[in-house]
Design brief:
By secondary structure, this protein is an alpha/beta fold. It has two domains: 8-47 and 309-431, Alpha-Beta Complex (Aspartate Aminotransferase, domain 1); 51-295, Type I PLP-dependent aspartate aminotransferase-like (Major domain) (Aspartate Aminotransferase, domain 2, 3-Layer(aba) Sandwich), CATH 3.40.640. Helix content is 41%, strand content 14%. The protein has helices spanning 16-19, 21-29, 51-61, 76-87, 105-114, 130-140, 159-167, 190-202, 226-229, 264-279, 285-295, 299-322, 359-368, 375-387, 413-431; strands at 35-36, 99-102, 121-126, 146-150, 156-157, 172-178, 206-210, 235-240, 253-258, 328-329, 338-343, 389-390, 392-393, 403-407. The strands form three sheets. The protein has an eight-stranded mixed β-sheet with strand order 2-9-8-7-6-3-4-5, with helices on both faces. Strands 10-11-14-13 form a four-stranded antiparallel β-sheet, with helices on one face. Helix 9 (226-229) links the parallel strand 7 (206-210) and strand 8 (235-240). Helix 7 packs parallel to helix 8 (190-202). The longest helix is centred in the last third of the chain and has 24 residues, at 299-322. The termini are far apart.
């Protein structure tokens, strides 16, 4: 073309969570069954919505209002319902104007970073959920700026690392926290969250808390929501129903703006995000209408309790299965539905492989591998080719660590046993 079409930051838009699916589909074309552990889709992993929830949604389909546009910021009655839930926590107060709906949190994340000037950086955790790290890096035309999560300390944030990076990098205007965390499955104690708020206050930053998993907490873990700890600091909480109901296909999430009046620039950012939604007209109406009826149903609390108990049992089962494997390290998870398994230093090299008898599959993996490939990605590709299990390398999560993320989602116990067994066998053979 007569000019370059893409800005430099376009190279940062990667999503290995779905990218590896293309490799798995090549195996499917050869007749292999794939054991999917790459993405947090409960429906794909045999999770069923309860009948009462389906009946609620079905009833909404019979109501004429369901088929119209919503307000650009979202249905008034739904925002009113959600504001009341946040205010009941006794922390920062919000009203209906402080809540905006999006077509999934990916939509919200893209808009937040899109309108920041390229020199304004948001520091996020590492390992990082790639939707955040890719969008932030793309807007800045640079690699993401991150603070470390420490696998030696329950994956908690390295607060000294965070503090020093904020102190000595004046381009940082915001801090991202994912709690409960994806990809590590950790839940942060209130004291850690309060310290992050203190850092934001000291350096006049705003906060983004991704709280999509806020109600998926188990193993007696304790935490606090952004609304409870933020005080007078400006911030955005990101929430949704895709993991919790679960209804990922609804593509329904929302942002809650806290303390908009505390800073004029932050208020302008929030208004700009809302203006962008007005240009799109509105987000999808049906899931918005369902939220008050489902969350307000007295059966919903019991549903969440049962869900969390099941995921907690899977987290303990994973620990039981993998605890005796040499060369790996991981923590018992307490929230969300992932576990990040790290390879110990020196455990991987570029000569390791898994035995593959099918010549067609052998040809595929020969094509997949490259000389400069991260060693954990090499393992992941071999695990897919030899064991037909699809996981995601941790090096794809803006991390210098080597490992992989798997889910705690499989509701079918026999399928869970088979998948975990295949991963374990692959690890033992690969690490030798």
């Amino acid at each position: 073309m007569r000019q370059n079409l893409l800005r430099l930051g376009a190279d940062e838009l990667t999503y290995e969570i779905r990218g590896i699916v293309k490799k798995a589909e090549q195996l499917q074309a050869l007749g292999y069954k794939i054991h999917w552990e790459n993405i947090g889709d409960p429906i794909q992993k045999n999770r069923k919505l309860p009948t009462w929830m389906k009946e609620t949604i079905t009833g909404l389909l019979m109501e004429d209002k369901t088929y119209g546009y919503s307000h650009s910021k979202g249905l008034y009655e739904t925002r009113e319902f959600l504001a009341a839930r946040t205010n009941a926590l006794g922390g920062v107060a919000v009203d209906v104007e402080d809540i905006t709906f999006f077509n999934g949190l990916g939509d919200a994340i893209a808009k937040i970073y899109q309108f920041l000037v390229p020199t304004a950086r948001v520091i996020g955790p590492s390992p990082a959920y790639s939707t955040h790290s890719s969008a932030e890096a793309a807007h800045a035309n640079a690699h993401p700026i991150t603070y470390n999560l420490d696998p030696e300390n329950s994956w908690y944030p390295d607060l000294e690392d965070l503090y020093m990076k904020v102190k000595y990098n004046a381009s940082i205007v915001g801090i991202l926290v994912i709690n409960p965390d994806n990809p590590t499955g950790m839940v942060y104690p209130r004291s850690i969250l309060e310290r992050i708020v203190e850092i934001a206050r000291e350096f006049n930053l705003f906060l983004i808390f991704d709280e999509i998993y806020q109600n998926i907490i188990y193993n007696n873990a304790s935490t606090a929501s952004m609304a409870e700890v933020i005080g007078d600091v400006p911030g955005i909480s990101l929430k949704g129903i895709s993991k919790e109901f679960p209804w990922p296909g609804a593509r329904c999430g929302w942002a809650e703006y806290y303390n908009r009046g505390a800073d004029s620039d932050f208020n302008k950012l929030c208004q700009t995000i809302d203006n962008a939604k007005m240009i799109e007209v509105s987000s999808t109406t049906l899931p918005q209408r369902a939220i008050p009826r489902i969350m307000g149903d007295p059966r919903y609390a019991d549903f969440l309790k049962e869900t969390n108990q099941q995921i907690g049992e899977r987290s303990k089962y994973l620990t039981e299965v993998f605890s005796d494997i040499e060369g790996i390290q991981f923590n018992l998870t307490n929230g969300a539905f992932y576990n990040t398994i790290i390879f110990k230093k020196g455990a991987l090299n570029d000569h390791q492989a898994l035995k593959i008898e099918d010549k067609k599959v052998e040809a595929l993996i020969a094509d997949w591998l490259t000389p400069d490939m991260a060693l954990d990605k090499r393992f992941v590709y071999y695990l897919l080719a030899a064991m037909q299990v699809c996981v995601v390398p941790i090096s794809a999560f803006a991390s210098d660590l080597l490992g992989f993320r798997m889910t705690l989602l499989e509701a079918d116990r026999e399928e869970q046993k088979e998948t975990y067994g295949r991963i374990k066998d692959g690890l033992i053979e690969y690490l030798g």
